[in-house]
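Researcher: I'd like a structural prediction for the single chain below. Treat it as a standalone chain; there are no partners to consider.
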Amino acid sequence: MPTPVFVAGGALCLLAGYLVGIVAGPDTPDRTTGSVVSFDTSDGTLCLDGDGVKNVSGVDADGRLCGTWRRATGARTPTKGDRFRFVSVVDKSAGQDARTVIYGNVVG
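Model: Treating it as a single chain, here is the predicted structure.
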């Protein structure tokens, strides 16, 4: 087989695999923005509200999302009223109540 045909065939296979991975691959969590209601520095509990929070799993009856904040080293500590961009995960591990973990940072 000539080299250019071999290279073109390999490139086509890689492109097809990439496209199949995008279409059939796992969904990534949507990042959304909320407003900080409170942050407890003693236990790391962060509560958010706002339009972006309403449809997130783990929201309470008051329309707030509260959970344990996980952050990168050096992240700015949120204060009431800050805009906060985040992704949340509800941990429903066996033997414990559902626990919400919030990954994100203050925006702007």
